[in-house]
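User: These chains co-purify. Model them together.
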Amino acid sequence: MLLEQLSNAAGVSGNEAPVRDAILAYVRDYVDVTQVDSLGNLICLKRAAGAPECQRKVMIAAHMDEVGIMVVHIEGNGFLRFRPVGGIDPRVLLSKAVLIGEKMVPGVIGQKAIHLLKEHERKQVVSVDQMFIDIGAKDKADAEQAVKVGDYGVFATRFASLGPTMKGKALDDRAGCAVLAELLRGGPYPCDVYGVFTVQEEVGLRGAQVAAYAVKPDVAFVVEGTVCDDSPKKTDVSPTTRLGAGSAISIADRSAIADRRLVQFLVDTANRVGLPYQFKQPLIGGTDAGRIHLSREGVPTVALAVPCRYIHSPVSLMSQADFDNTVALMKAALSRVDEVVK
Amino acid sequence: MKDLIKQLTEVWGPSGQEGAVRGLITAAVKPLVDDLRTDAMGNLIAVKRPTVESASGRRIMLAAHMDEIGVIVTHVDANGFLRFSSIGGVNPLTLLGGRVAFGNGVRGVIGIEKRESPAEEVKLEKLFIDVGATDKERAERLVTVGDVGSFDRQFADLGDRLVAKAMDDRVGCAVLVQTLRELRSTSHEVSFVFTVQEEVGLRGATTSAYGVNPDIAIAVDVTATGDTPEARTMAVGIGKGPAIKVKDRGMLAHSGLKNLLVRMAKDSGIPYQLEVLEFGSTDAMAMQMTREGIPAGVISVPTRYVHTPSEMVDYADVLGAVRLLVATLSAPMEF
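Assistant: Joint model of the two components:
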């Protein structure tokens, strides 16, 4: 299963090669042209069916990178100091197993045992610069045999299916990558489709910026794994998205206001084929759409997502049905995309 | 020109929903320009070609933004109250007791949860919109998640001074329309660009400047003032003429262009002020950084109570901004 493979692969921003290789192997035989650009974006062109009337280009983006950590210093006693890459709440880091560098060296983000914690320490959030990774090295020289400054680290979480749901790390945005890969295996569609697997989204939408400039699309879709906060609450507030309630369409977030025609197009398509959808709580988060829609003279863009609980942490959880419905909705939308890019 | 300002400030158009504003401006400028188009983002680009051939003619982009700040519905609760976030910089204090209007004409009142103490900060999360619905289902027949609203407030003519919501930046749009009406002769190709989504990050100017690819760019927008009781110190006041920007948080105006605007104001006998704004920026910031870089400046209309439902300008400053722009476009732009 591609999603399992992608979730388990290590691909922190700037080091997406393992993810890219897996995707390329999966889609290569189903697309006409593949290219890896200078930043590492994987751009796959799937040409339109037959002799197409549609002269427009459709771009679909999903980002390959995940949040993680980078080793910044090795202490004399062999412990590693690190910094987050992308947005990570320090509270999710303590006592987690991680894998460092290309050799995937196992380590643990160490934490004092509860027996030793002073009363005030129990109430404190430890900051990242106080944390360290323990790879079991006996001293600096020993540690340097295994890892070096600048190595990336990922959470050591293995993907698993829990029946109707799936759990794994990096579902933001390996869920989107897997959706996009399925779209490229499907089709062909009425217009040329550029499936773009982007790099460095988590550190500022950097890959999407240059990929959109190169592709020059007429319309763009972004496929994400997005925030889902539907746990029980005391007050009647938005869950941002709900697990199992279908693809979440973004009307506006911090990075972009969606093109209303495209929002309507997705809603109409979902209604036509009888697929569930929901609107993501506005003004939360941002996606590659933030750069794509501002590329060159502007590109009508919309983002839709598979809701994922607990993203940017060692383990997130998503619904198999939401994933399947997102693939189905995008396939249905692409099959009539010529109607919206006139 | 007061009628034009009244019309433009009263029309509804939060960021991303500028269609009605664009319609109004399209009708006003269509007879006055050689080419009119709307780009992928919704920017309205009205081009006036040179009326006289001259080697000194340049390609100039003028920008004023059509969008206004507003609110966006994020959640409808079981009792039919709407929770919301802001579109652009909205100070929660300015919302209390006010009303908002949605695109379909639905109106709502802004309410606030009880506060634990009078000193407690008024935060957006504590506010809600009451559209008069008795439950969630009835509310959702009127408004759904993702719908946007603007301040619901009428224009008021106080004589020398004018008050309205969305003076930022419909007054700039009005200055551009009026400039088109008064511009008799120019050696330049001038693109009058009415931009979208300025309030959420200069997004319309980013793409339209790339498309227009001008030699020189000038934004017309509002600026803050320091002329009210206990105001933050700022050497700009209303009624002292249009302001020529030197810098703000996002840009340094091109000094040659700034000096040219100062010279044009002096030569034409138009009172003017120099503006150093310590917060905020304008479309000129985005235009300046386009492609290989574009000399950019700003003519500002000094405005009190910016980003509130009651933004106040001095009518003479507005007329001065038009005169300065007409004079500048009528002369060679060498700097």
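The two ends of chain A are 36 Å apart (CA to CA).
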